[in-house]
């Protein structure tokens, strides 16, 4: 018989040592701003459509120029999962954790990935209102996490 996880268990975060970033020319501005605890999203300078993840052409007008616009970091959970069983030994002390896709407010449905924290596992659901909390994992490296509002 398998044990049923306690859904009131507090959510945890994976160890910082497992977080490795590989910014490229398109994503470097996002990660540089994140290191300063600023959430920025690329916006087309021609039609004002937000384009995230960033890419060479606007999905709406096919223009190439972008500007990086700071956003406040509020949104709703679009999708998530609760990880109860560690798939790596280094994650044994980090379960349960809840990676989520969060849809940012006022950004043409831009979605950002990050773990939900500061809540019990049973509290996470699609549509949950969340706010951004930066997690410093190393010097000059911060990643987005989300807590219920």
Notes on the protein architecture:
By secondary structure, the chain is mainly β. Helices cover 5% and strands 34% of the residues. It is built from 1 helix and 7 strands. The chain has a 5-stranded mixed β-barrel. Strands 1-2 form a two-stranded antiparallel ribbon. Strand 6 and strand 7 form a beta hairpin.
Distance between the termini: 37 Å
Number of domains: 1
What strand line-up does the widest sheet have?
A: 3-4-5-7-6
Largest sheet: 5 strands, mixed, barrel
The class by helix and strand makeup works out as: mainly beta
CATH topology: OB fold (Dihydrolipoamide Acetyltransferase, E2P)
Beta strand count: 7
Poorly predicted runs are none
CATH class annotation: Mainly Beta
| Global outline | globular
> Which radius of gyration do the C-alpha atoms yield?
17 Å
Features:
two-stranded antiparallel sheet, mainly beta, 5-stranded mixed β-barrel, 34% strand, OB fold (Dihydrolipoamide Acetyltransferase, E2P), globular, 149 residues
């Amino acid at each position: 018989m398998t044990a049923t996880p306690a859904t009131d268990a507090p959510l945890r975060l994976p160890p910082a040592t497992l977080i490795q970033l590989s910014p490229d020319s398109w994503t470097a501005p996002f990660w540089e701003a994140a290191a300063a605890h600023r959430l920025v999203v690329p916006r087309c300078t021609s039609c004002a459509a937000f384009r995230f993840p960033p890419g060479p052409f606007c999905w709406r007008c096919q223009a190439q120029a972008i500007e990086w616009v700071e956003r406040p970091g509020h949104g709703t959970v679009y999708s998530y999962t609760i990880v109860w069983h560690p798939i790596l030994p280094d994650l044994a002390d980090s379960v349960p954790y809840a990676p989520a896709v969060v849809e940012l407010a006022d950004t043409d449905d831009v979605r950002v990935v990050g773990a939900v924290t500061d809540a019990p596992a049973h509290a996470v659901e699609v549509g949950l209102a969340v706010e951004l909390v930066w997690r410093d994992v190393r010097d000059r490296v911060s990643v987005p996490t989300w807590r219920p509002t």
